[in-house]
Task: structure prediction
Amino acid sequence: MTDLFISDLHLSAERPKVLSRFLAFLQARAAEADRLFILGDLFDVWIGDDDREPPIPLVLEALAGLAERNTRLLVMGGNRDFLIGEGFAAATGAELLADPCVMEIQGRPMLLMHGDQLCTDDVTYQQARAYLRNPATIAEFAARSLPERRLLASQYRSKSGEATSLKAADIMDVNRATVVEYLESYQVNYLVHGHTHRPGKHRVAWRRGTATRHVLPEWTESGGGYLAASDGKLTAGDC
Ligand SMILES: [Mn+2]
Result:
């Protein structure tokens, strides 16, 4: 059983090399895996499942192709694409994952998250997050036309990075106590997340022992990466 984990590709028409790297990854590495987990921010922005601005149709088609290669696709929304919903799932054959969720990986329970909920030192960001995730905010946004939603999203994104944490340099790292709180509440010794753009492997001491926190890399025009789980090990890879 081989599972792959990726996140933070921020796919958009402005990042053609990331797109082609991702399409090549789906054709080769992902097609050989049993499951591909995408832990948020696959897209730079997601204004609704009805949006078909390029490169969305190409990405949906490529993801749908994974099912034909017998790779299961499991997708979690991130802070940029949390509006990914049932329409996306229907178009791609993906199973949508809640954030956080616990999955059995290599026979062990692992907590999967996008990671933004761990960055509690950034109080302004967490306030903005709570507002954006409010069902009333989402309903009001979803009721608007596609052009209106596109305009609102771009206005929001052009606001200060401090409020929205959309720029890499503005994203704070995780808060250690918050990480431990999640390990405690889900009783797991493994955590995989992205978002912070600080890829790595960290040991975290908590009440039940020492947990491992794997952080996925951001994909840029110069490179991308993934975490692979097979033969009982988790290994980081570049692509
Ligand atoms: Mn993110």
